[in-house]
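Same chain as my last thread, 283 residues:
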Amino acid sequence: MSAFSIEINDFLVIAETSIDELVYGETTVASAKSVWQSWDICIYDCIVKSKALMANLEDLNRPLVWLLPALSYQNELKQVFESSLKQLYPDHVEHLLFYGATGAHALVALAKKNNWDKVNVIALDATFKANAQGEYSYQGVGGALATFEHIKSGWSQSGFELAPTVDFLKHNQLNGMFSRIVEQTQQPIDIIFAPGNGINPDGDVWVNNLQLLSTLINEHTHYELPNYKLGQIGALEGLVNLYQLTTSPVIINHYEHALMISQEQAKHQATASYLWISEEVHN
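reply #2:
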């Protein structure tokens, strides 16, 4: 297995000025700054933001992977988005991942499959944050420019699974995913990144399936619920979670098995497992 690192070079969202401020700074309550209009307007804003990120790419010879909104069942919007990017950047639009919050995990699997040592990454999506009324407020389009690189030791993806889910309650796919994780590994799960948000109880079906992981989790398992703090940031979510996984001293020094759970309402659910690979194990 190959370990990897994530470096976020540019992070452009409304509320925070840097990735570290978003992840490690104090939680702020959103104030309504933008009005959601339509996905057509959102795609246009994504295209505009992509120009600022593309302008800062240092090495255009590396593979470039785009992490984009989860438009699983909106083929017309996907085609408009894809054709717009191809018109602007004809030589750099080969790898488009329309998986939203799950995109970064698909990126890790894609890089491993293609034996890429170093990859440029651009993430673009609508962002929402909880306001004082306990509702998600649209904050505009967020974007990130990152560098993915395979390294000798660190976190390595040991499993990744994504399945369509129209309704989290009626078509919950996590039960099967959790069962397969138990079958495939005997190593205890030290930390779980889960999509709890405290606003929509229908999105917390992952809690009801935790008993399936009973042999791998215990009272010492740590839970990260980034949506409470970060809000819903779509395609940036997986990237931010992997950044925290690979940069937080607390996580690096204390944990060896991480589980990432992500889901997009009326789109899909996914899990990704990560194991810590030490220099000794690598050798």
